[in-house]
């Protein structure tokens, strides 16, 4: 073999071992997602040691499937197993990140994204060959999963941590102002604000008819007369947004996958009053590949970008910035959109996102 291409056998062996690990861990993401969706983790966290039949009864599931799932959980070292008694338990150290009342955030929620993205793999492969993108409508359960994600990163911190980044925002909300959420999804964040601040008025925009239908149904069920949701394509906001209409605008993980993010940002600036505040949550990362080498979720975020955020933008003929558009790009875009004062913040509970406070 040419000296230039001599094989580093140690490196080759290490990579083979890594590939075996990737196959196992990738498979475990699917099993963790199933454990979340079926309520198995929640059931086991209530039980202590039990056999597969007892766990199946507690969760209201078929024992044969539960037993096989427990095999994956056992060899994956997620649950403990006692062979002599044929019993299993979810250790509390694992339950704290795998149940719906998780203390440290429920990682099983995020594991669902692997199966959601896997559902469009063939369409993504075709995009590699022919270009274009995969539209939002092709992603089964997307808004459902994003609502669960928002319940972890946004809702617990919204009133006490995120909104106070905007200075006197809480006092203004209590007094009564107009608030807009662009890319609101199923509207959980805006609904929480409308309930907490009845003197203010709230509007949510989203492209998805399914998400807006869900959001409006929730607002009606709660009797929130100060809250409305509209199906709206945000790409034309720069030209169509009502001028000086809102005191506070928020976006939660919504800018980077827009078809025309600059138009959206200019529309937000157009509709924001001169003394208003725009609070933007978006992915924390670098626009340079090498700048994300130490990002603990770097591979995951680039995968989400390739298989969702970038492609849904390209499907609309958009810019295709992708998930990892980077803090550098975000700050430059805010400035070009007309925001003269931008500050970047990080919150301890959220390892994925940065929080920007933008003022005219």
UniProtKB/TrEMBL annotation:
InterPro entries: Methyltranfer_dom, SAM-binding_MTase, SAM-dependent_MTases_sf, WHD_Rv2258c
Molecular-function annotations in GO: methyltransferase activity
UniProt keywords, alphabetically: Methyltransferase, Transferase
Annotated transmembrane regions: none
Domain S-adenosylmethionine-dependent methyltransferase Rv2258c-like winged HTH per the UniProt entry, residue ranges: 27-100
One GO BP annotation of this record: methylation
E.C. code: 2.1.1.-
Domain of life: Bacteria
SUPFAM superfamilies on file: S-adenosyl-L-methionine-dependent methyltransferases (SSF53335)
Pfam families: Methyltransf_31 (PF13847), WHD_Rv2258c (PF21320)
Methyltransferase domain ranges (all copies): 174-284
The protein's name: Class I SAM-dependent methyltransferase
Annotated organism of origin: Microbaculum marinum
């Amino acid at each position: 073999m040419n000296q230039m291409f001599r094989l580093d056998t140690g490196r080759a062996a290490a990579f083979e071992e890594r590939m075996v690990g990737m196959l196992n861990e990738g498979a475990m993401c699917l099993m963790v997602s199933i454990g979340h969706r079926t309520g198995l983790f929640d059931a086991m966290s209530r039980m202590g040691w039990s056999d597969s039949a007892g766990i199946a009864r507690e969760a209201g599931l078929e024992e044969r499937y539960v037993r096989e799932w427990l095999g994956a959980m056992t060899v994956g070292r997620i649950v403990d197993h006692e062979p002599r008694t044929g019993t299993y338990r979810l250790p509390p150290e694992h339950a704290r990140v795998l149940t719906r009342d998780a203390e440290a955030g429920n990682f099983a929620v995020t594991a669902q994204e692997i199966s959601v993205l896997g559902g469009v793999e063939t369409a993504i492969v075709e995009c590699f060959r022919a270009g274009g993108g995969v539209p939002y409508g092709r992603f089964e359960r997307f808004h459902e999963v994003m609502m669960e994600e928002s319940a972890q990163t946004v809702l617990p911190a919204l009133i006490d941590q995120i909104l106070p980044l905007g200075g006197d925002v809480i006092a203004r909300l209590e007094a009564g102002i107009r608030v807009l959420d662009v890319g609101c999804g199923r509207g959980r964040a805006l609904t929480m604000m409308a309930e907490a601040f009845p003197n203010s008025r709230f509007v949510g925009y989203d492209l998805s008819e399914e998400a807006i239908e869900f959001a409006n149904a929730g607002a009606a069920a709660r009797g929130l007369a100060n809250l409305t949701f509209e199906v709206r394509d945000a790409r034309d906001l720069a030209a169509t947004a009502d001028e000086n209409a809102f005191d506070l605008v928020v976006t939660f993980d919504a800018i980077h996958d827009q078809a025309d993010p600059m138009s959206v940002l200019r529309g937000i600036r157009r509709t924001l009053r001169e003394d208003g505040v725009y609070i933007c949550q978006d992915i924390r990362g670098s626009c340079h590949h090498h700048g994300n080498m130490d990002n603990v979720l770097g591979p995951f975020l680039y995968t989400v970008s390739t298989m969702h955020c970038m492609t849904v933008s390209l499907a609309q003929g958009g810019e295709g910035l992708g998930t990892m558009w980077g803090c550098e790009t975000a700050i430059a875009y805010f400035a070009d959109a007309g925001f003269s004062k931008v500050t970047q913040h990080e919150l301890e509970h959220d390892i994925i996102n940065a929080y920007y406070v933008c003022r005219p």
